[in-house]
Amino acid sequence: MKNVTDSFVSLGHWPSAGSFGFNTDILSTNLINLSVVLGVLIFFGKGVCVSDLLDNRKQRIFNTIRNSEELRGGAIEQLEKARARLRKVEMEADQFRVNGYSEIEREKLNLINSTSKTLEQLENYKNETIQFEQQRAINQVRQRVFQQALRGALGTLNSCLNNELHLRTISANIGILGSMKEITD
């Protein structure tokens, strides 16, 4: 393998006295390669006009630009529609918010009114209950006082009455009842 590379390196050092070899000078080889490529292009590209290619390319670029402009216009139109919908939705949301707040205020007032009515009814029930309990307590006290008075009166009567007085009272009462019976007949 070393022999092959040595032969290529040695070819680069040969003088250009009419023999074939590799030119290692980059600048001169680029010019030669460029001229060969241009010659091939001119020879084989006679049927293809460069201006036609450029015109076709220019037309495709213009078409692409026109399509892009149309797409841009459509996108702008869609954006405007979306913005209009957004404004409409925002207005509806504001309306719902306002209605919601007013509905909340109405419900709050209804709740306050309902609660105050309930409190008023509870106050009335409380007052009625207090009156009922007071009346019941008064009646109980009256009954106890009456019972104690009756016991005291019976005790006094029993201690003051003897048999004779007792018989006279019974006779007097029988006489009163008898006269009442005559009046009613």
TrEMBL record:
Major localization class = membrane
The UniProt entry's coiled-coil ranges are 72-99
Instruction: Note the superkingdom of the native organism.
Output: Eukaryota
Where in or outside the cell is it found?
Membrane; Plastid, Chloroplast thylakoid membrane
List GO molecular-function terms, semicolon-separated: proton-transporting ATP synthase activity, rotational mechanism
The protein's UniProt keywords, in alphabetical order, are: ATP synthesis, CF(0), Chloroplast, Coiled coil, Hydrogen ion transport, Ion transport, Membrane, Plastid, Thylakoid, Transmembrane, Transmembrane helix, Transport
Q: Which Pfam families does the entry mention?
A: ATP-synt_B
Provide the Gene Ontology terms for cellular component: chloroplast thylakoid membrane; proton-transporting ATP synthase complex
Residues crossing the lipid bilayer are: 31-54
Write down the InterPro entries for this protein, in alphabetical order: ATP_synth_b/b'su_bac/chlpt
Q: How does it sit in the membrane?
A: Single-pass membrane protein
Q: What does this protein do?
A: Component of the F(0) channel, it forms part of the peripheral stalk, linking F(1) to F(0). F(1)F(0) ATP synthase produces ATP from ADP in the presence of a proton or sodium gradient. F-type ATPases consist of two structural domains, F(1) containing the extramembraneous catalytic core and F(0) containing the membrane proton channel, linked together by a central stalk and a peripheral stalk. During catalysis, ATP synthesis in the catalytic domain of F(1) is coupled via a rotary mechanism of the central stalk subunits to proton translocation.
Quaternary state and partners of this protein? F-type ATPases have 2 components, F(1) - the catalytic core - and F(0) - the membrane proton channel. F(1) has five subunits: alpha(3), beta(3), gamma(1), delta(1), epsilon(1). F(0) has four main subunits: a(1), b(1), b'(1) and c(10-14). The alpha and beta chains form an alternating ring which encloses part of the gamma chain. F(1) is attached to F(0) by a central stalk formed by the gamma and epsilon chains, while a peripheral stalk is formed by the delta, b and b' chains.
Report the HAMAP family cross-referenced here: ATP_synth_b_bprime (MF_01398)
The entry's family comment says: Belongs to the ATPase B chain family.
Q: Report the protein name in the record.
A: ATP synthase subunit b, chloroplastic
Q: Per the UniProt entry, what species is this protein from, by scientific name?
A: Wrightia laevis
Lineage start: Eukaryota, Viridiplantae, Streptophyta, Embryophyta, Tracheophyta
